[in-house]
Write a structure and sequence with these properties.
4-stranded antiparallel β-sheet, OB fold (Dihydrolipoamide Acetyltransferase, E2P), 3 domains, single chain, 4 helices, 359 residues, conserved putative lor/sdh protein from methanococcus maripaludis s2 fold
């Protein structure tokens, strides 16, 4: 037999064997084509009833309270000779803030009042001596006494008004922080002009803006907590102390003051959560509730099947949510893996994690 014919015969025999083997054993591709019974791995929690605080979130900043700021002045003309503090500086009760020199007119008025009192007292003494000598009448003595009393009252009032000294030092009436110094060193000021504005040490409140529609939900004495939005966030307890009933013309919101139990920096920005009531319903982890075009929903387990349940989200906090809806308390709620589910999908529960003791 020729070599070419021999090779052809061997090739045909090998092909026939391959066909027979394929007919008896299905290929791996055929195995992959068979549909597999797939399920989604999930974690669940029991469906429980409960309640959470209902909170209204608002934003604002730390500002002086209505009674926490005082403007200091001297009701006399004069000149600021020396400034001893700057705006933003913390001061203590009795600390010197600035030095003040009365104007020439104020100094002259003070000298005239003292001179008038001296003359009136001298006349009072002279009239009393003449009365003893029967050279003056009791009516003249009464008039001299009245003139002395009027001069004393005028001097007392003037000294209370302008301090009674040509050189004066303005001091802090309480512990606090200098808000503004609206004058410059050497400046001449009118009587009663503002010289410094002082904010009490505990005179700051967090003023937040709430929507006009929410005004009826917020009342004084309600609990709140505030968190700084600065680089070092911290949360402090507080209490609502005032709710306006007019719109702030700049923000178009209603200003609400919260007294904070702790030190805050004036001008610092805050988020406030005001507790306005209690929410009652099904209390679940936030991840358990999803949303789509039909609204909020969740999944419960019916054996190994997922059942979609439409719910209404009532509120919650950073970790939990309160919902209402036709939940079955006997069925657990899917909290992990629910975003992969559809109504009726097959599921399998993850094994409970057990605490292990290190060797």
């Amino acid at each position: 037999m020729r070599p070419l014919a021999r090779y052809t015969t061997l090739f045909c025999a090998a092909g026939l064997c391959t066909v027979l083997l394929l007919a008896q054993h299905p290929s791996a591709a055929d195995d992959d084509a068979k549909p597999a019974d797939s399920s989604v791995l999930v974690e669940t929690r029991p469906a429980t009833q409960g309640e959470l605080p209902e909170r209204l979130v608002a934003y604002g900043s730390a500002e002086p309270a209505a009674d926490g700021r005082m403007t200091l002045s001297i009701p006399a003309e004069g000149r600021v000779t020396r400034l001893l503090v700057t705006a933003g500086e913390a001061v203590h009760r009795g600390q010197a803030l600035l030095e003040f020199h009365l104007s020439a007119a104020a100094t002259s008025a003070l000298a005239q009042a003292r001179s008038a009192l001296r003359v009136a007292r001298e006349e009072q003494t002279r009239t009393a001596r003449l009365l003893e000598q029967q050279l003056a009448t009791r009516d003249q003595k009464a008039q001299a006494d009245k003139a002395a009393g009027d001069a004393q009252a005028a001097l007392y009032a003037l000294e209370r008004e302008n301090g009674g000294k040509v050189e004066q030092t303005l001091t802090a009436p309480f512990d606090g922080v200098i808000d503004t110094i609206p004058v410059a060193q050497g400046e001449r000021v009118a009587a009663g002009a503002a010289l410094a504005t002082l904010v009490r040490h505990n005179g700051l409140v967090v003023t937040v803006g709430i929507e006009p529609a929410d005004v009826g939900r917020v009342h004084p004495q309600e609990h709140a907590d505030v968190a700084s939005l600065g680089a070092s966030p911290r949360r402090l307890p507080g209490t609502v102390v005032r709710v306006d009933h007019t719109l702030n013309p700049r923000t178009r919101l209603v200003d609400t003051d919260i007294a904070v139990d702790g030190d805050v920096l004036q001008g610092d920005a805050f988020q406030a959560r005001i507790e306005t009531g209690r929410l009652k319903g099904w209390v679940l982890p936030r991840a358990a509730v999803l949303d789509d075009e039909a609204g909020p929903y969740l999944f419960q387990l019916d054996g190994t099947k997922a059942v979609r349940v439409g719910v209404q989200r009532l509120g919650g906090d950073d970790h939990s949510v309160v919902v209402s809806g036709p939940l079955d308390p006997r069925r657990e709620v899917v909290v992990v893996g629910n975003y992969q589910l559809e109504d009726g999908a097959s599921v399998r529960k993850a094994a409970a994690t057990r605490a292990t003791t290190p060797p």
